[in-house]
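Box 4.2: Ligand-aware structure prediction
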Amino acid sequence: MNIAGINGTEKLRVTYQLKEVFLAAFREKADITEYYLPKDCPNFCNGCVNCMIKGESACKDAEYIGKIEKSLLKADLIVMTSPAYVFHATGGMKAFLDHFAWRWLPHRPAPEMFGKRAVIMTQCLGAGAKSAAKDIKHSLSWWGISKIGIFTGALTGDIVWERLSEKKRAELTRKVKRLSGKFAGMDYSKPAHTNLITKAKFFVCRLMQRKLHKNDPEYLDGKYWAEQGWLGKTRPWKLRL
Ligand SMILES: Cc1cc2nc3c(=O)[nH]c(=O)nc-3n(C[C@H](O)[C@H](O)[C@H](O)COP(=O)(O)O)c2cc1C
């Protein structure tokens, strides 16, 4: 199996330690490709909307985005990590997610995403890990992913892993291992189930795209939906990719 990891920090500290605990359950059976932000996607989205209007290859950062997207599409499991910075995912993670706005359901979602599984891991000192995880979940679910596991942790002691009490380290490790055990036990030869919320979002977007495509057959998003067969009877969650 293939795993793509997107890490919202380059620091090899607590987020990294917990992510390593998670990945340990997969090391022997998975090809793991990881990216660290901001290094691997160093620029902000400047809102040029080229990705929406002209196509993703017209993005000034297409070189970075294209490479990471290839790994995401190939992955059976996507692992996203971030510490909480002011109650949210890191700026690097936000900049990364902005670059994938064109992959949201109202635009040109990748059919591969509908059968994928994903895990989000966030942690903080006191509070904010949950809202940081929500930042990431928002994008993943709008990319079309239904099966999303979430780990959130609060250190409530020190910010240095080695200086945390044994009890705290054991508690966090146990919680991560519970999640990794659950995901390691899944059958990756079968696509994940697409939930009703994702299907409902798809149908609302389909109505919109049908109208847009009718008004302007050259409009990129509408054309994409038509090419996928989604304006007809084809559904991305029924494809075996
Ligand atoms: C810019 C910044 C903002 C932070 N904001 C929060 C916060 O809102 N809530 C919180 O509990 N901890 C906050 N922290 C603490 C980090 O979440 C915490 O130290 C975390 O363990 C850092 O992850 P790392 O060890 O992987 O670098 C913040 C740290 C930084 C550098």
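In the box above, the bound molecule is flavin mononucleotide. Residues 9, 11, 13-16, 83-87, 123-128, 155, 159 surround flavin mononucleotide (CB under 6 Å).
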